[in-house]
Amino acid sequence: MSLPPETQVAGEICMIRTVLTCVLAGAAAFAQTTTSVPPSGQSSPPAQAPRPVVPVMPPVAPAENLPPDTTVITIPGVCPGTAANAKSGACTTTITKEQFNQIVSLITYSNQPLNPAARRNFAQNYIQILAMADAAEKSGMDKDPKFAELLKIMRVRTLADFYRRSLEGKYSNPSDQDIEAYYKQNQAKFEQLQLERLYIPRINPKTPNMPRADFEKKAERVASEMRERASKGEELSKLQVEAYNTLDLASPPPTDLGIKTITSISPVWQSDITSLKPGEVTRMKSEPAGFIFYKLRARNVLPLAAVKQGIIHEVSKNNMDTAIHAAMDRLHPELNEQFFTVAPSGVRPPRLVPSQAPGATQGSAAQKPASPK
């Protein structure tokens, strides 16, 4: 008996999907470990007697050359389509190359073919699953109410996953117009900024006993002076060395930050830096660690060709998120807060109090008799 390509195969997909995902991981590992290496120090095997000459078989045709309707799996005695035949076992399930590739594509979310080792391992595990399912049907487990309920859950989950995959296919290739529009609307994301930074700490590790307020005041004054001189064109690296010498600080960090994008910069500085022209410096800011200001040496925008792949990913993700939010926003679910309440982290659950004996008044069991005066 041959499986119809659109009914029987599709009907089995949601039943075996989780298992076959694990199978593929095992198949990939198997494909990478087909060669064994003898332990070090092991002697070579002894010479064997000459064996009879075996006729050379003609090479097997590559799998890609097989027609789509070629039978690639044959399973005698398995016929999950009809209950009567399943009980008698008088039938044979066959799966064609096209059907097998469809199963692989649906489960792996990919149209990429498996390598020969992974393909064979996949088929062997798939046969085992079909055999187990056939045995379950013959034993009547498919009539179990729990099985029917599980199928409902799996159907909902598979439908949701199938919808997500359809969205991925729909939005995976945004149009050139969408790509260019995103590029123009987000120029700041694609800017390369050559930045320098002058940093003076609030505390001098060499003089920890010095009153902190005194050093902070002096450090702020020096940083403000360095910022003023940097705005007039003096080299930032030399200014930082001078500032550290003035404050008796050791090991000034490098001022050159290299090339940055605006998204890699702390949000508290982004607006200050994006407003700069090459050669200009930001205002000085007091942060918990110390006093800081930046200088912009140069800026340029990456060409569209250099960032196109990143834009495709971002536009696709945004379109996907919009579609998913649209599906969710039309719903207004409510949760029973009494049933779904979660205790805050670190809060101990309420302690159970033993029930009182019949007739006892509240607190009577815990109170001691009054002491005589």
Structure explained in plain terms:
The protein has helices at 8-32, 83-88, 97-108, 116-138, 145-171, 176-185, 212-231, 236-246, 267-274, 304-329, 337-340; strands at residues 71-76, 92-96, 191-201, 256-260, 285-286, 290-301. It is an alpha+beta fold and 373 residues long. Among the domains are: 8-32 and 64-142, no CATH class; 184-304, Chitinase A, domain 3. The strands form two sheets. Strands 4-3-6-5 form a four-stranded antiparallel β-sheet, with helices on one face. A two-stranded antiparallel sheet has the order 1-2. A hairpin with a 3-residue loop joins strand 5 (285-286) and strand 6. Helix 1 (8-32) packs across helix 3 (97-108) and helix 7 (212-231) packs antiparallel against helix 8 (236-246). The longest helix is centred in the middle third of the chain and has 27 residues, at 145-171. The protein is elongated and about 95 Å long.
Task: Based on the model shown, name its key terms.
single chain; 373 residues; alpha+beta; Chitinase A, domain 3; two-stranded antiparallel sheet; 11 helices; 6 strands
Overall average pLDDT: 81
What is the radius of gyration? 36 Å
Please state the oligomeric state of the protein chains shown. Answer: single chain
What low-confidence regions span 5 or more consecutive residues with pLDDT below 50? Answer: 1-44, 362-373
Q: What is the structural class?
A: alpha+beta
* Order of secondary-structure elements: HEHEHHHHEHHEHEEHH
**Strand order across the largest sheet:** 4-3-6-5
**Which percent range fits the helix content?**
40-55%
